[in-house]
Design goal:
Chain lengths: 306, 234, 292
């Protein structure tokens, strides 16, 4: 089994790299979105899957990255790749500001704090009208760069997945997992849980920040409601729970499966979106809390690098 | 020679209940101490106070002359105090080996070597790659025990090491504890099994209803009327 | 915004704060019951309040039922819903790690909101019932607020009497303190769980019915109440039922006071900032509760 996995990966990468040459503009934008979801899900997994600290407000980082990038492009004329990176940095700064007080709390209280985060941010975006264009949104100069963005988005998705692999197989990753397993024991065993939670949180914000920026560039127009939608956090959560939180490929699997279902099936049931996601979350939590890969991992005693 | 650990008038309250009430004790290096008392007398709470999990409401705790009662648990750990728990707290989804590695900070290679060595010491080397949650009770207990030893702490707190453990394993654990003492380590254990306490400890402290009732060599404690009354009298 | 703040303004704001606070306290008590008894963070609490508001709205617009009478419908109806949710869904995760119950109730909450969107559409609804204000000297209080507060006080008092005086109420408090000890004393813990969830839902429904007269009703209205209820529980201390009262009043006061100095938009963020500050400074709550 081990032998054909790298070959399969290489084939997939090659296929994805060549895809824009044969696909329509619509196809490219769709795959671009898929990459975005992979990056988002994978990033959410870094904090919530590994440490068990559920971040209900993760879309805040996406929105922050979107706005930061958009402002840099619109007002200061920065090139979009650099602006997107800056979006990632902005998201990390936000993560530091929020994480510093909130991660000292124990899991459930952190979750509560994150629940309120969305509301606060949506209000803030509207409030700073002068800078962000308020409720009316922000427009970017037109640019047709979907193919380039496709590649960069894909790169980000790959990097976050690779980062997850490195983390999960390192002592750093083990420490993150002890927080999930038994935080009190971890503290007693000399692990500075606050510091590790903070690192994980910061890392988990970078991805959404960057793809938020890339997405803003691709859409060409952003407004508060489009970049801080609750459904985005929900989708991230469902993808990771479904695929297998705490695993490496689980978020990828979840993103691919749910995105495909979304495009093929649920586009017709647009009003049932949230309901279906809610039902999936309930079903997963009750029936397979470890997600698909988690269940397989347990059943066939697979290594953690799945 | 100043004591290794000094607990001075430590009090801990939970709501209306005073779990530990002005308890004072001192531990000299290189000896084995016991902490006994009826259920609910505050033994584990006292351990929690020493290790920083439940900071005391009053009093002071000094380790190697430095105050530790306001420190966070992980800092206390790095000062040289390790502990096991009454209810085993291994990390179930980490392997036995990973449970050991995760507590170390230095060179990863050295840590792996030490972990392998300790696993061999307790004859668990073939289970190194097994998820700790899948191990038997006794095996988990051993893993928790050697996990404490990974960073070579000066003071080791053992919370009911004999609970639920068969005779053979228990004897191995007790031998290991004595060997640690011979190397200059200090061990402080909470235990209900009187035979273990009497056979192993050099000095025994008795807690009752959160207060220190008595202190002395096992033989003296055993005959102390107040102790007998605390256990059986009321 | 006036620069000069008169004593009359302060008085107005304080009393407004208390009026609002009573409502917060009642709703938060429900959340606190679930958390205290089952250690479950019920993210679906707000959506249940939302359903209570819709019950009131539909009864008012179809048969013209007095919104305050509709309490007699919304509370029992959602009590039953709460019991069903607990029996078939929440019960399965009560002993699982807290993360599971959090995610489960989160899933339930988003499903409920979507169902409401499908059934009722997202159009804003309103119950035009008690308009105008009571004027008392320099103070003016909207009638609906005052009446809502009166009902909230009555219902909360009733809840407390239940907890203090009745056998079931004492059993609830016993289970909140220690499930094992309560079991050993012969308490049927499963039934207490059902009762607690039902009661909590009824309290949320009452909140919904009362605010239906005051705010715009739409499927997503519950979220802010979930968050504020959490905040109240944090302020008062987890598992500390009287603390929820104080926490609710405090939240009401802080909100109204800050409206004197801040614009309404930023006002919403005040609750959030308050939460973070309290969690950092005194995580056990102002009156003390459990942290574990």
């Amino acid at each position: 089994m081990r032998r054909w996995v790298p070959a399969l990966l290489a084939a997939a990468v090659a296929g994805l790299a060549l895809y824009p040459l044969v696909a329509t503009g619509y196809g490219v934008r769709m795959m671009l979105q898929l990459f975005m979801w992979v990056a988002l899900a994978q990033s959410w997994n870094l904090i919530s899957g590994l440490t068990g600290y559920v971040s209900f407000g993760h879309v805040a980082f996406f929105g922050t990255g979107s706005y930061a990038t958009a402002i840099l492009i619109a007002s200061l004329d920065w090139p979009w790749p650099v602006a997107a990176l800056a979006g990632g940095v902005a998201a990390m700064v936000l993560a530091l500001l929020i994480g510093w007080p909130c991660l000292r709390l124990k899991g459930p209280y952190f979750a509560i704090a994150m629940l309120g985060l969305n509301e606060a941010l949506r209000v803030a975006a509207s409030y700073f009208e002068g800078l962000t264009g308020g409720g009316l949104g922000l427009s970017l100069p037109t640019l047709h760069a979907s193919v380039e963005i496709y590649y960069v988005m894909g790169l980000v998705a790959a990097l976050v997945t690779a980062a997850t692999y490195v983390i999960v197989t390192s002592r750093f990753g083990l420490r993150l997992m002890t927080i999930r397993e038994d935080e009190v024991a971890a503290e007693a065993m000399g692990i500075d849980t606050f510091r590790y939670k903070l690192y994980a949180f910061l890392l988990s914000a970078a991805g959404p920040g960057i793809v938020g920026g890339l997405s803003a560039r691709d859409q060409g127009y952003i407004e508060p409601i489009s970049v801080f939608p609750l459904i985005m956090t929900i989708t991230m959560i469902v993808m990771v729970l479904f695929g297998g939180k705490g695993t490496i490929w689980g978020p990828v699997l979840g993103a691919v499966m749910l995105f495909t279902l979304q495009e093929l099936v649920w586009a017709t049931f647009i009003y049932l979106h949230q309901l279906l996601f809610g039902a999936i979350i309930v079903a997963v939590v009750l029936a397979m809390p470890r997600g698909i890969l988690g269940v397989l991992q347990q059943k066939y005693n697979l290594p953690r690098t799945i | 020679m100043p004591p290794l650990l000094e607990v001075k008038n430590v009090t801990k309250r939970f709501g209306g209940v005073t779990a530990v009430n002005r308890v004072s004790l001192a531990l000299e290096p290189g000896r084995i101490y016991g902490l006994i008392g009826p259920n609910g007398s505050g033994k584990t709470t006292l351990f929690n106070c020493i290790t920083g999990i439940d900071p005391p409401d009053a009093g002071a705790i000094r380790f190697r002359q430095g105050r530790i009662d306001r420190l966070e648990p992980h800092k206390i750990f790095h000062r040289g105090i390790g502990r096991t728990f009454q209810i085993i707290r291994v990390f179930p989804e980490l392997t036995a080996l990973e449970n050991l590695l995760v507590v170390t900070t230095g060179d990863y290679g050295q840590a792996q070597a030490r972990a392998a060595e300790l696993l061999r010491l307790v004859k668990l080397e073939r289970l190194a790659g097994e998820y700790a949650g899948n191990l038997s009770y006794g095996q988990q207990k051993l893993v928790e025990f050697i996990r404490v030893l990974m960073t070579d702490p000066e003071l080791i707190l053992l919370d009911e090491p004999a609970a639920g453990v068969n005779r053979t394993l228990l004897n191995e654990l007790l031998d290991a504890v004595r060997a640690l003492r011979d190397r200059g380590k200090t061990i402080f254990l909470v235990e209900h099994d009187m035979k273990v306490v009497m056979g192993l400890c050099e000095t025994v402290f008795v807690l009752d209803h959160g207060e220190k009732l008595a202190e002395g060599p096992p033989g003296v404690i055993q005959a102390d009327e107040r102790v007998i009354e605390a256990y059986f009298g009321r | 915004m006036s620069v000069f703040i008169t004593p009359a303004m302060i008085g107005q704001v304080v009393i407004s704060g208390l009026l609002a606070g009573a409502l917060y306290a009642m709703v938060a008590l429900g959340l606190g019951l679930i958390f205290g008894v089952m250690r479950v963070l019920n993210v679906a609490h707000g959506p249940i309040l939302m359903l209570g508001a819709y019950v009131t709205f539909w009864l008012f617009s179809t048969v013209g039922l007095n919104p305050y009478l509709s309490l007699l419908v919304s509370m029992p109806l959602l009590f039953v819903l709460g019991v069903l949710l607990q029996r078939f869904l929440v019960r399965r995760v009560v002993d699982a790690p807290e993360l599971s119950s959090l995610l489960l109730t989160f899933g339930i909450s988003i499903a409920m909101v979507n169902v409401a969107q499908l059934a009722f559409t997202s159009d804003l609804r309103a119950v035009e019932f008690l308009t105008g204000s009571f004027v008392l000297g320099p103070f003016a209080f909207s009638k609906s607020r005052v009446v809502a507060c009166a009902f909230a006080v009555a219902i909360t008092a009733g809840a407390f009497l239940f907890l203090q005086r009745t056998r079931l109420g004492k059993a609830i408090r016993a289970v909140s303190q220690s499930r094992e000890v309560a079991q050993v004393c012969g308490v049927n813990v499963q039934r207490i769980h059902l009762l607690a969830f039902g009661m909590a839902s009824a309290l949320a429904a009452a909140g919904g019915s009362l605010v239906a007269v005051m705010v715009a009703i739409q499927p997503e209205m519950g979220g802010i109440y979930t968050f504020k209820s959490f905040l109240v529980i944090v302020l008062g201390g987890a598992g500390n039922y009287p603390g929820a009262l104080l926490g609710g009043l405090l939240l009401g006061l802080v909100e109204q006071l800050s409206s004197l100095f801040l614009t309404t938009q930023v006002n919403e963020a005040v609750a959030y900032v308050l939460l973070v500050v309290v969690l950092l400074v005194r995580p056990t709550g102002l009156l003390g509760g459990r942290t574990s």
